[in-house]
Each structure stands twice: as C-alpha cells, then as structure tokens.
Amino acid sequence: MTLLLIGTALAGLGDENPWQLTCAAKSVEQYEQGYVDGRRDAEARSVLKPAVLGGAAGLVIGGTATFSCGACGAPLAIAGCIVPPVAANSNAPIPEPGPWESQELDYREGYLYGYQEIGKRRTTRAALLGGIAGTTVGVAGAYAVLKVIQVAFFPDEDLPL
User: Tell me, what's the pLDDT at 1?
Assistant: First the structure.
C-alpha cells in the first residue's frame, strides 16, 4: 500500500526531481580555491597571543603548584602545560573580514574550513609550547624562591626540595 502511494506521488512529478530543487551541486573548483586561500591566510596569522597566554597560564599553574606542594606539585605543574592548548583548541579561529567574504558560497565554505583547520592546529601548538615554557620558568622560579627561603630562614635544616 505504501509503495503504491509513493509511486503515485512520484509519478505526478514528471521530469522534476525534488532533490535537484533543494540541493545545489558544490562548485569543486571554487571550494578548493577557497580552501587553499584559507590555509594560506591561516599560516600567515600570528600565534603570539595564544603562546603568551599559554606561557602565562603555565607560569602561574606551574609556579603555584611547585611553591605550594614542592616536588609533590609535579602533576599540577604538568597540568600547566596541558591546560592552555586544551583551552586554545576549544575555539576555532575566526578569519579577519576581507575580500573572501564577497566570494561565492562554495569559496567561503572552503576558505573557512581551510582557515580553521590550519589555524586551530597552529594555535594549539603555540599554546602548548607557551605552556611548556611558562611551566618551566614557573617551576624553576618557585624552586629558587623555596631555596632562598630555606637558606635564609632554615640554614641548619636539610629540607627536601
């Protein structure tokens, strides 16, 4: 019965295919050109901000963990390296307004996909390297402060640091 109803409904359409009315074919050339341009523009984008933010987070987390817990703060200090890239990877980068916005829809889709693919990878890598550098500096700084405190206030004690 269902097939009979569907067949009758389709027979009334004639030569028109309902899928052709709603789904336009993508222009592969336009999409690929947008993808290539988006990747190129993302490569040229500065990653200084995520690297600095990653370094600052690593410095604070690593230094605080080491100063608070000493050697036992190592797992927290390692978190200082991991938190920045996770945070940076949660948001896809958005390209600056430019001539790509006035192009056809297929070009814009390709451009956004290419830009976000490369931009996300570069942002995550920069945040990770910044987090590692910041954590290293934070741990070394906290260790130096703890050593100065030990020498200044507990010269006869052999405290494990």
Answer: 45
